[in-house]
Specification:
By secondary structure, the protein is mostly beta strands. It folds into five domains: 4-165, Nucleic acid-binding proteins (OB fold (Dihydrolipoamide Acetyltransferase, E2P), Beta Barrel), CATH 2.40.50.140; 173-289, Beta Barrel (OB fold (Dihydrolipoamide Acetyltransferase, E2P)); 295-397, Immunoglobulins (Immunoglobulin-like); 532-630; 636-732, Immunoglobulin-like (Sandwich). It contains nine helices and 48 strands. It comes from Ignavibacterium album (strain DSM 19864 / JCM 16511 / NBRC 101810 / Mat9-16).
Length: 734
């Protein structure tokens, strides 16, 4: 059987023959120590500047491999530290006595067959290697604070040099949470020196447990002084996400941790949250758990739909996982309409099932919220939910039929429905069908939505194949199970769909400021209340044509997921998703989209009079998802750099194409700032649409006119700005 050494030798021989090694080693890149790459003076750190002074330099660096990029290069090529399609490892200084500025992240972005000659896939723990690469600072979108890394050089192809090996990866450096984070904020002055280093933290307590299959921070550790540090699930041994390498559950909140070992990095799950240091445990033995508090799971109420005369029995499975441990007390703590907290003693039944009954609440539309408390024989206490402010359980007391509003309503900021995992029947008008929202062709599938009025909490996603035949404008009654998928509430496992009528008008769009949505974390009420609802932004500017990277296909080698950033007069950016709807607008996420007839590329600094659609949540962000082209109103692109029009005179060009079906472009020029109006009239002189209605600076502009909703015929378009007015004809031929 081949071992790693045999594989490495064979691969290196092949590469040397293929490209005549002299081409590889001809480059004389400077050799820089890990400390020199990472070190920053105190004045930079005090100002929050943590980028390496060598960013952009191509260097050679020598260090000890802390973790193998792959489980096994021959028999199991799954990565240990998840970085998407890339390979990742960490290096530490060859001097194990170094206790600061002694670790660094190493990434190989290109792992195609042509680039595997770097030999990075053959790295193993404790090897001493020299790596050639470009120094970079990885900073998440909207974040302050990043992580210094070496991007392995693949052009020209530069193999890693194997110098030798150590007996092991060395003992971790002992640190405390307070050295790294002050509360939740990164403590740059004392923490940055540990970035990329292999460390150990002892005697802490867990909190913020998440068993979500999409969460990248499964739990946090606390030092008792108010300082907190999240665990980042980069290792496949400590995650429930798709890159998991084993079945694993995070420890219960309140669990004592004797120690946790791992590498230090920067992370924030949302651009509205501060960047902080996180620890990334690597191998299964990097976490040693001490005592655990009682486990509280499977909290249920015995009634799906609670009425004014209904007492509600709450049950939970409560057990002590410690050897010889026992649950000694359990309680349900509840309030009615935010009043005083009441306690009910729970009674233990068979199979660790505990129960208590909340008395009937004879108030229509009352809100009852509650959580479960338990204590074991060691005096350790646990709560479910652990966050009894944002994530508490609740139900509504209703003396009327259930509405979508009731199902979506989530008043505490947790984002969960009162009816999550309960069966309901609700009615509404279909606001988007599968001809509208067709998905991104990859991770987001087609979707159907319905809505039962205008305003917050009024819309919901209808999931499953049973929803596929539904069409916009149908009034439907749906029976199914309420679930939470990727932080979106939806009705699924549908048992009945009844179409009550067709051709109904859709609810009006709710005008929302981009500041209400922004980049707020999941569950934030100002954004969450519009999940699944028809909303619109007014007079927005495209502030970034690719929210995740550089402009163009695949974000210029970074990422392009078809999302743009826009802002209204509030100046607060929020996301708009272009890939999932059935329309012509795009940000060139793949090459060639701008050559398709009728397609419209959305450019930086262009504007929309209105952007409309349905609010959706995915991959850590709320985003507006337009359905069809008529959700884009009054698109104006400043084409000053591309169009040879004089800026010394007013002009209104002939639309192109003309005749058109159904989209055409109108181009105009204004030599000085003014309030611009561009309107469309039918042949009778009746106004049918306003395309532009705003103050604009001097320049050349183009605006897109989508006549999908109009019939064939002759139309007039007119510009009014300052004292200038001009009208021209165009022909719509369908």
């Amino acid at each position: 059987m081949l071992n790693k050494g045999d594989i490495m030798k064979a691969k290196l021989l092949f590469i040397l023959i293929l490209i005549s090694g002299s081409l590889i080693f001809a480059q004389n890149y400077p050799h820089v120590s890990i400390r020199d790459l990472q070190f920053l003076p105190d004045d930079s750190l005090s100002a929050g500047r943590d980028a390496s002074l060598h960013v952009g330099d191509t260097v050679q660096v020598t260090g000890v491999v802390v973790v193998s990029p792959l489980i096994d290069p021959t028999f199991d090529r799954r990565p240990i530290m998840w970085a998407g399609a890339r390979w990742q490892t960490y290096l530490r200084d060859t001097n194990y006595a170094a206790v600061d500025w002694a670790g660094i992240n190493v990434i190989q972005n290109d792992t195609s067959s042509a680039a595997q000659g770097t030999l990075m896939d053959l790295l193993d723990t404790a090897q001493v290697v020299t790596i050639t690469g470009v120094v970079a600072e990885f900073v998440s979108t909207g974040q302050v604070g990043g992580q210094t890394q070496i991007n392995v050089l693949t052009n020209p192809l530069t193999p890693i040099q194997f110098i030798g090996s150590k007996p092991n990866r060395g003992e971790p450096v002992e640190v405390t949470i307070s050295e790294l984070n002050n509360g939740l904020q990164a403590n740059y002055l004392t923490g940055e020196k540990y970035e990329g280093m292999y460390v150990i933290i002892r005697n802490v307590i867990t909190s913020d447990r998440s068993t979500s299959t999409t969460s990248s921070t499964p739990f946090a550790i606390n030092d008792g002084l108010g300082n907190k540090m999240f665990i980042h699930d980069q290792s496949g041994y400590f995650t429930k996400r798709t890159h998991k390498l084993r079945e694993w559950d995070p420890p219960l909140d309140g669990t004592t941790i004797q120690y946790i070992r791992g590498v230090i990095g920067h992370f924030s799950s949302s651009s509205s949250l501060p960047t902080r240091y996180v620890i990334r445990p690597i191998y299964p033995d990097d976490l040693l758990i001490g005592q655990s508090p009682p486990s509280i799971t499977n909290i249920r109420r015995n009634i799906d739909l609670v009425g004014p005369n209904d007492a509600v029995t709450i049950t939970a499975t409560i057990s002590d996982l410690d050897q010889g441990g026992a649950v000694t007390e359990a309680k349900v703590k509840y309030r009615v309409n935010g009043g005083d907290l009441n306690e009910l003693v729970m009674v233990q039944g068979v199979n660790n099932l505990w129960s208590a009954t909340v008395p009937a609440v004879g108030i229509d539309s009352a809100l009852v919220d509650f959580y479960v408390w338990a204590k074991d024989n060691d005096g350790m206490i646990s709560l479910n939910p652990s966050d009894t402010v944002r994530n508490k359980y609740f139900y509504l007391v209703l003396n009327r039929p259930l509405t979508i509003y009731d199902v979506q309503y989530s008043p505490f900021g947790g984002g969960f429905s009162a009816y999550n995992n309960y069966r309901v029947t609700i009615s509404g008008v279909v606001t988007a069908d599968t001809s509208d929202l067709q998905g991104d062709g990859n991770q987001i599938s087609r979707r159907v939505y319905m809505q039962d009025g205008v305003g917050p909490w009024r819309g919901i996603w209808v999931g499953g194949l049973a929803a596929d035949p539904l069409q916009r404008g149908q009034n439907v009654t749906v029976s199914g199970l309420i679930r939470e998928s990727n932080s979106n509430t939806f009705i699924d496992s549908i048992t009945s769909v009844v179409v009550n009528s067709s051709g109904n008008p859709l609810p009006d769009f709710v005008t929302v400021s981009t500041a209400n949505i922004g980049t707020l974390p999941n569950g934030t009420i100002s954004a969450e209340q519009y999940e699944g609802v028809l909303i619109k932004y007014l007079n927005v500017t495209v502030t970034d044509e690719n929210a995740d990277g550089n402009p163009g296909p695949n974000g210029g080698g970074n990422s392009n997921f078809g999302e743009i950033l826009v802002a209204d007069s509030s100046g607060i950016n929020t996301r708009v998703e272009l890939q999932e709807g059935n329309h012509e607008y795009h940000n060139l996420w793949i090459a060639g989209l701008d050559t398709v007839p009728g397609n419209i590329r959305v450019l930086q600094n262009s504007t929309f009079e209105e952007l409309r659609g349905i609010l959706f949540y995915s991959f850590g962000n709320y985003k507006l998802v337009p359905r069809k082209s008529d959700d884009f109103v009054g698109y104006v692109s400043d084409v000053n750099d591309n169009v040879p029009m004089s800026v010394n005179e007013y002009k209104l060009e002939q639309n192109y194409p003309n005749p058109f079906n159904p989209i055409t472009t109108i181009q105009y020029n204004i030599p000085k700032e003014g309030f611009v109006q561009i309107k469309i009239f039918n042949i009778l002189g009746q106004e049918v649409k306003t395309l532009v209605n705003m103050i604009q600076s001097p320049g050349n502009y183009k605006v897109i006119f989508d006549a999908s909703s109009l019939s064939s015929g002759v139309y007039l378009y007119q510009i009014n700005v300052n004292d200038f007015q001009l009208t021209k004809k165009m022909i719509l031929m369908k």
